[in-house]
């Protein structure tokens, strides 16, 4: 009797797997679409829409799951999960574009998503965002770089270690932190931005601030990113400021509450769905204000109103946010989810590296780190 040997494939490069077994090499780029399976959650559809989507899916050998009452029409609204390979999804999109009840729009959205179906590269191309805190109360290195000389020395170290972007913050947003005025932030930020400009330092600079006045002044001094951990919630003028500068990128983060209260028993009915919807709404808001979508980076906000378990769920499922169509950034560096509050920063950096290896290997767009050097080394190994 013939014995069969089976193995699950976890290689993201399915084209290579096909070529390795002797599949037609000239067609492998197309053939892989039959083996790249995607599960899509579609929110808030009517029972009529749900039944049509399911029939379109079944007609190509795929499937669509809905609330059990959708088929009877006893429920008005349901979410659904559409599961299919890329080839099937392309056909489903075409079928939906011919359907009534607004499903033409869904078909168009599916096609748009499939144009970027390889949302994560097989080869890591993550940009390292080096952290430079010029505050006295940062959770990690408060006061260490408060002096301008110490700050500029660390700036040069981050650059020499391989940072792609430098993120400078003059307001701590750790759990329990109080807000810092625009005036106080600018006292610390202006000198280092002037130093960068006067010395011809050519590296993109991000300013970690929730304040539109701070953002405006720092952009004028050369900042090319604004990192708003409140995601426009703190200052309603922030989006208007960013919209005035077509070359400036905005990092829009999810945060459940302000830093002083965000860790007071954060609760979610559905963690990933709630963060996803919030970030999608923020992106739509930014675009409505005139900010180009290409200039928006999204961040699920590790540690900003999340429990330790919720933070780990975000790390393992971060690719779901790519469906929004924007680059994704995460920052786990030295945070409390490591669960080693009394450890040295050197030890925290090693555990940070372990978690970030997951993100680097998955090809996340940006990671925000204190220790750039060890992450750059890991990146070189992965490449």
Description:
This protein is α/β, with parallel strands linked by helices and 383 residues long. The protein folds into two domains: 14-115, Alpha-Beta Plaits; 127-382, Dihydropteroate synthase-like (TIM Barrel, Alpha-Beta Barrel). It is 39% helix and 15% strand. It has an eight-stranded parallel barrel, surrounded by five helices. Strand 4, helix 6 (148-161) and strand 5 form a beta-alpha-beta unit. Helix 3 crosses helix 4 (86-96) and helix 7 packs parallel to helix 8. The protein is globular and about 70 Å long.
Summarize the structure.
The protein has helices at 14-20, 28-31, 47-58, 86-96, 103-115, 148-161, 182-198, 212-220, 238-243, 271-288, 308-317, 345-361, 372-382; strands spanning 37-46, 63-66, 77-85, 127-133, 165-169, 205-208, 225-228, 249-253, 296-299, 328-330, 366-369.
CATH class term of the largest domain: Alpha Beta
Q: What share of the residues does DSSP label as strand, in percent?
A: 15-25%
How many separate domains? 2
How big is the Rg?
23 Å
Order of helices and strands: HHEHEEHHEHEHEHEHEHEHEHEH
CATH superfamily of the largest domain: Dihydropteroate synthase-like
- Helix vs. strand class: alpha/beta
Helix content range of the residues, please?
Answer: 25-40%
Mean pLDDT: 92
Q: Kindly report how far apart the N and C termini lie.
A: 44 Å
Biggest sheet: strand arrangement: 4-5-6-7-8-9-10-11
Total DSSP helices:
13
Low-confidence parts: none
Count the E strands.
11
